[in-house]
Sequence to fold (190 residues):
Amino acid sequence: MARSAPEINSGSMADIAFMLLIFFLVATTMDVDSGISRKLPPIPEEQQDDTPPIKERNVFVVLINSNDKLLVEGEPMDISMLKDKAKEFIANPKDKADLPEKKNVNIDFFGTYPVSKQVISLQNDRSTSYDMYIKVQNELAKAYNELRNEISLQKFGKKYSDLPADKQKAVRKIYPQRISEAEPKNVGGN
Fold:
């Protein structure tokens, strides 16, 4: 006489699998990449030609050509030097005549403080690689972040990221991130 193997009731297996699926969907967090934080200009209501001119000394020109080579202020530059050059331009610590002007601004926690009128103009070629574009963006962001950290440590004894929102806002007024991106075009392949 042959014995048959006992059967396992699998009727509720589908229900259990479905409940586990719902549990893991609800309990799992999803990382959301925020991308590059840039504030776009507002849509102009009508064409305005009365924009104040920006002096050349206040503009830091960064060009990326189709071969992913940098041209900073008219000179070829390696990406590893961009952050330090940008920091020097943004801060203008020695008040050089060829670097950005400063104007005194009343800032919470700092009183009257000289703020640079700097603007970084970034332009890339249509053939610039996405990797190089991101590297340049990262180096420019590092320059602002390091300057903000330095002044935060100097004034408050804490890193910029550890400051409360009102103090972070005051530090951002001293080093506002002004990166102007021109529409990509053919910059050249040198």
Summary: The chain has four helices and seven strands. Residues 58-181 form one domain. Strands lie at 59-64, 70-72, 75-77, 102-107, 111-116, 119-124, 179-181.
